[in-house]
Amino acid sequence: MHSPEGSEEMSHTDDGDDEGSTDCEEDSIPVEKNNGQENGIGNQPIPSKKLSWNIKANDRLYNNSFKRTKYCCLKEKLYKIFPQVSPLKWYTTFITLAAVMTFTAIKDARDDIMRHICDRSINNRKCGLMVNGSFQEKKWMNIKVGDIVRLKRDDFIPADLLLLSSSEPNSLCYLETAELDGETNLKYKQALKITHEQLHEEAQLADFNGIIHCEIPNNRLDKFEGTLEWREGDVHSVGNDNILLRGCRLRNTQFCHGMVVYAGPDTKMMKNSGKKHLKQTQIDRQMNVLVCLIFVILFVFCFAMAIGTTIWEIVHGKGFDTYCKRDDTSSFVKSEEGMAAWTAFLTFFSYIILLNTLVPISLYVSMEIIRSLQSFFIGCDKRMYYPLKNVPANARTTTLNEELGQIEYVFSDKTGTLTQNIMTFKKCTIGSVVYGKRENESERFTSSQADKMVSWDWNDKADPKFQFCDQRLVDLMVKEHDAEACEFFRLLALCHTVMVEETEGKLIYQAQSPDEESLVTAARNFGFVFLARSQDTVLISELGTQKEYMLYHILDFNSDRKRMSIIVRNPEGKLKLYCKGADTVILERLQKDNPYREQTQEDLDMFANESLRTLCLATRDLSEEEYQNWYSKHFLPASTAIGERERRLSKAYELIEKEMVLLGATAIEDKLQNGVPETIAKLAEAKIKIWVLTGDKQETAENISFSCNLLRNDMEILKNEDVSKMIQESIRRKDPPSNPKQLLNRSHKALIVTGNTLSTILTDKNSRIKLRRRKNKKRNGGTASEAVVNGVEDQQAKQQSDQLKERQRRFIELASECATVICCRVSPLQKAEVVKLVKKHKKAITLAIGDGANDVNMINTAHIGVGISGQEGMQAVLASDFSFGQFRFLQRLLLVHGRWSYLRLTNFLCYFFYKNFAFTLVHFWFGFFNGFSAQEIYDEWYITFYNVFYTSLPVLMIGIFDQDVSDVKSIQYPALYEPGPKNLYFNFPIFFGRLMFGFLTSFLIFFIPYGAFTMTTRDDGMSPSDYQSFCVVTSTALTFIVNFQVGLDMAFWTWLNIFSIFSSIAIYFALMFDCNSSGSHNLLTSFFMFTGVVFGQFYFLHTLLYKI
Question: Average pLDDT in the 932-955 region?
Answer without folding.
Answer: 85
